[in-house]
Design brief:
Elements lengths: L1 E9 L8 E9 L10 E11 H5 L6 E3 L2 E11 L10 E7 L2 E14 L4 E12 L3 E14 L4 E11 L4 E9 L17 E6 L1 E12 L5 E15 L11 H4 L1 H5 L11
Parallel strand pairs: 1-3
Antiparallel strand pairs: 1-2, 3-6, 4-5, 5-8, 6-7, 7-14, 8-13, 9-12, 9-14, 10-11, 10-13
């Protein structure tokens, strides 16, 4: 049997009152030749981007991670609605994730471009952040006729100095591992208890007849050590999500100049 208990906290602004609910799911797992008992616990907090960005003190908390100071800037996106972008902080297997889901897209004739800048602050209350893994799900219509790139910049809030940066694009949708020449490693050097993160999503239409480029999921997971400790190794959770991102991808890779 598989027992899963999920704690979900929502805070969706004045129109939807914050609620806390506990949901227990009992499922029978049957596999030929195997029997076992497994227990998993996942903590989740959810809000929408519009509410989070309306006040720098609006926040999400999961385990020892505090996410606040959310912001966004939009140029050229199609029908972008920040209240329709869900931001989820979750924890499973010793790692915490921050995920944006919703309509982040452009549509139009060739040459159409769009950009979405997402910003936030993350604080580790009981350690130092050593690295941030990345993952996204994107698509183009028609397939193979768009450009999609995601650049990440991590800053030390005390002096605004860069402590990590990375570049993701089609055919490189997930970290780790990272290619040093391409510059997609997002290792925080030196490790810090609090960092500011800037995520810049750029899109472009290349099909002669026009088209669509979209991102539906963008996720980051956080790794840390106690002060003076040893870095935690990658759990493999991010790698398991690779197959999800591959589904529907039809974008062309843009050369880095």
């Amino acid at each position: 049997m598989l027992f899963e208990t999920e704690m979900v906290e929502t805070n969706l602004g004045a129109k939807e009152q914050p609620t806390m609910k506990t949901r227990s799911i009992l499922a029978m797992a049957v596999a030929a030749g195997t029997m076992g008992l497994a227990g998993t616990a996942r903590a989740v907090t959810v809000d929408n981007l519009a509410h989070l960005a309306s006040d720098p003190n609006n926040s999400l908390t999961v385990d020892d991670k505090l996410f606040d100071n959310f912001g966004y800037q939009v140029v050229g996106l199609s029908s972008f609605d920040p209240s329709g972008i869900l931001v989820t902080a979750s924890a499973l297997g010793g790692f915490e994730d921050l995920t944006w889901t919703g309509n982040m897209s452009i549509a139009g004739p060739p040459g159409t471009t769009g950009e979405l800048l997402l910003t936030y602050t993350v604080t580790a209350l009981n350690g130092l952040i050593t690295s941030i893994d990345q993952f996204f799900v994107g698509n183009s219509v028609p397939g193979g006729t768009g450009i999609l790139e995601i650049d990440e910049l991590v800053l030390d809030p005390s002096n605004n100095a860069s402590v990590a940066s990375s570049h993701l694009e089609v055919n490189d949708i997930v970290d780790p591992p990272g290619e040093l020449l391409q510059g997609d490693n997002l290792d925080v050097v030196p490790p810090l208890g609090k960092v500011n993160v800037m995520k810049d999503i750029g899109m472009g239409i290349t099909n002669p007849n026009g088209g669509l480029v979209t991102v539906t999921v963008s996720r980051q997971s956080f790794h840390q050590v106690p002060a003076g400790g040893t870095p935690v190794t990658e759990s493999g959770t991010t790698a398991l999500l690779l197959s999800l991102a591959l589904t529907g991808l039809g974008l062309v890779r843009k050369s880095v100049v």
